[in-house]
Amino acid sequence: MRNRFVKRWKREEGVTLIELLAVLSLMGIILGVISTTIFFGFRSYDQVAVENRIREEGDVLMSSIITELYAFAPDRVYALPNGTGFEMYHVDELGTQQAGDKVTIVISPQGQLEIQKANVLNAENPPVDPYQATRISNGSIVSGLSSITVEGETAGGFDYYTTGLINIKLALRLGSDSGQSQLQLESRFGF
Does residue 171 form part of some domain? Predict the structure, then answer.
């Protein structure tokens, strides 16, 4: 029995060139399929991660607008030109508009959402950046595709609204020039 194993080990048969080429080509095909699948999986994962990040950024922007709208509870709302935003004011008992008590929500030309409060801007020691949540890191709001408009009837022929809807359309872009992702969000808020 031992001699049989010894004889097999001593045989000097090798692999032919055709067998070697067949094994190498099969390994190449299998490795190609595996690497393509892995590459596609990583690329899909990155794309989904970027889209989730854009959606999170959009949710933060929308919640910043609605929070400011409902926390301020405006008596008058003015639409800004070209659908770039709106201004909110309080009025006193006599119906006089309080210029020092206003909030402006606007899409800036730099592609960011700006929430400007008159009492914060006029304060002696204003915070450095009270609205950091409205800044999109490594991205921007696409100005031509985004708008914030006011819908409703103006009060008594004046140019302000006392009730109505605020229509928000945001086109968000995230990433560098070569790898940009874009998402459009729409929402409506009543006031």
Answer: yes
Neighbours of 62 (CB within 10 A): 17
| pLDDT tens-place string over residues 89-122 | 888 888 788 777 888 888 888 888 888 887 654 4
- Count of domains forming the chain: 1
Q: What is the pLDDT of residues 11-26, one digit of tens each?
A: 667 788 999 999 999 9
- Whether 102 is covered by a domain: the verdict is yes
Residue 191 contacts residue 163 (beta carbons within 8 Å)? yes
Q: Residue 23 domain-assigned?
A: no
User: Is 19 inside any structural domain?
Assistant: no
